[in-house]
């Protein structure tokens, strides 16, 4: 196939060089954005009388036909083409003749490539945000369902204080809401049109960049042509946001893996999202959660790979930058499938409330409440802390829990202990007295759930 850039050279590159140079295998997914961008460019050229009106109309009609044929599967990208941009222009010229060669007036592949990538990633970021909101909704519904189910809260993987399961789920909701915000921030900087920067220095034609940008839904145009074609910050920022999102999904997956083990038994994952062992018939393996945890490293690698590619590139465009799309597309695809799997997996899991309650009872997680009881009676906290720790040691020695230790044993440590102690250290009472905003008390959890519902309404409304 003849090279559109032949001229300075004869374009007769070796076949292995053609294969090495080609990116159509990766960038063909941007065909819609490329054609949409070209239609907007042709409309701008027509408006500014840069090309004849009739030629512009033929170009626009030809591009619309190519888009329709590709959408319906009647036209497939040619793997022999260098990239999707060249493919579309070549097909256009074959269909409408030399008028098709006018399309590339006042633009370069440099600004065209980054335009297409911005358009594509803007749309993909919006898709990912919607999928995150779906997961948030499932988690928030779970928080409402389990707002009074007590389980241990952990630090250092040691049972620490009593919380409700709804409160635990809401912690992940808050992480995911920040992920949504990061993607929105990323999209705001991504939504800047580079088209018109051309190769690096702008153009001698009287273009209207603002008009073309508005046709494509951009908020603004880039302010420096050198930066326009050499910037890949929007790819890196998206990769960074997706890496943080995957870290959150991985943390939650790790907990699902732990909780579904025999040692915990807090939840059971649906058969639809687990596998069996080829040799051990008793096993039910949380493979999907493990894969999400594993794929997190893959997305991290995508980010680090592109950061490394970009770190030594002088202005403006260099072919190294063709390596931007493969990692960012891979990360986008990986995140989407992880969200598609995790959301129904969480929605369909069975929660074993009795196992959570038993773990809470056996962990001395109301020891802080013993100390707080003494403090409210006037004892300094550090003294109360030491007494509480000594009582835990005594309970371990006697194989008792704090709720079952007789009052006379308590009074050996302090005369401040009275019968009302047992109400104070009751696990449900201990949870409900966490009245501070954002805490695990039922009223606080209900307030958090309602707040999340408001956020979902606002965020869904901004689609």
Structure description:
This protein is elongated. The chain contains 19 helices and six strands. The longest helix is centred in the first third of the chain and has 37 residues, at 109-145. With 463 residues, it is mainly alpha-helical. The strands form three sheets. It has a two-stranded antiparallel sheet. The protein has helices at residues 15-21, 24-27, 31-47, 53-71, 84-96, 109-145, 165-190, 209-215, 225-230, 233-259, 287-310, 325-348, 353-361, 367-376, 381-398, 407-411, 421-424, 427-432, 442-461; strands spanning 150-155, 158-164, 192-193, 220-221, 267-268, 350-351. α3 (31-47) packs across α8 (209-215). The mean pLDDT is 94. It folds into three domains: 19-105, Fumarase/aspartase (N-terminal domain) (Fumarase C, Chain B, domain 1), CATH 1.10.275; 110-358, Fumarase/aspartase (Central domain) (Fumarase C, Chain A, domain 2, Up-down Bundle), CATH 1.20.200.10; 367-425, Orthogonal Bundle (Ribonucleotide Reductase Protein R1, domain 1), CATH 1.10.40.
């Amino acid at each position: 196939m003849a090279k559109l850039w032949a001229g300075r050279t004869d374009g007769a590159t070796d076949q292995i060089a053609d294969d090495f140079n080609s990116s159509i295998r990766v960038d063909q997914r941007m065909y819609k954005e490329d054609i949409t961008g070209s239609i907007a460019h042709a409309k701008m050229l027509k408006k500014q009388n840069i090309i004849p009106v009739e030629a512009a109309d033929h170009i626009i009609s030809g591009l619309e036909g190519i888009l329709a044929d590709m959408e319906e599967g009647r036209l497939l990208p040619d793997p022999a083409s260098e990239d999707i941009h060249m493919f579309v222009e070549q097909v256009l010229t074959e269909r409408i003749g030399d008028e098709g060669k006018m399309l590339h007036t006042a633009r370069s592949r440099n600004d065209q490539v980054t335009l297409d990538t911005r358009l594509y990633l803007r749309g993909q970021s919006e898709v990912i945000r919607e999928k995150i909101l779906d997961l948030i909704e499932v988690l928030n519904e779970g928080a409402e369902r389990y707002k009074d189910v007590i389980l241990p809260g952990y630090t250092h993987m040691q049972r620490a204080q009593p919380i409700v399961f709804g409160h635990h789920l809401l912690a992940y909701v808050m992480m995911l809401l920040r992920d949504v915000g990061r993607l929105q921030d990323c999209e705001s900087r991504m939504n800047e049109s580079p088209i018109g920067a051309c190769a690096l220095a702008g153009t001698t034609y009287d273009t209207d960049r603002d008009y073309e940008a508005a046709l494509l839904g951009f908020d603004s145009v880039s302010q420096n042509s050198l930066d326009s074609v050499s910037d890949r910050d929007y790819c890196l920022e998206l990769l960074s946001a997706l890496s943080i999102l995957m870290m959150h999904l991985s943390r939650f997956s790790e907990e699902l893996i732990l909780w579904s083990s025999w040692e915990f038994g807090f939840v059971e994952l649906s058969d639809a999202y687990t596998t069996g062992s080829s040799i051990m018939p008793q096993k039910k393996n949380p493979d999907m959660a493990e894969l999400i945890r594993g794929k997190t490293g893959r997305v991290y690698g995508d980010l680090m790979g592109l950061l490394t590619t970009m770190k030594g590139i002088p202005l403006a465009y260099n072919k190294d930058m063709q390596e931007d799309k493969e990692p960012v597309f891979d990360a986008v695809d990986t995140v989407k499938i992880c969200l598609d799997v995790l959301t129904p997996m969480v929605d369909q899991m069975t929660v074993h409330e009795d196992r959570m309650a038993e773990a809470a009872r056996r962990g001395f997680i109301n020891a802080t409440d013993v100390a707080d009881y003494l403090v409210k009676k006037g004892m300094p906290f550090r003294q109360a802390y030491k007494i509480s720790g000594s009582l835990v040691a005594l309970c371990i020695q006697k194989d008792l829990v704090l709720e079952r230790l007789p009052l006379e044993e308590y009074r050996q440590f302090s005369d401040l202990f009275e019968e009302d102690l047992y109400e104070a250290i009751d696990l449900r009472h201990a949870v409900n007295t966490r009245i501070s905003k954002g805490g695990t008390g039922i009223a606080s959890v209900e307030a958090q759930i309602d707040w999340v519902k408001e956020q979902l309404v606002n965020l869904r409304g901004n689609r």
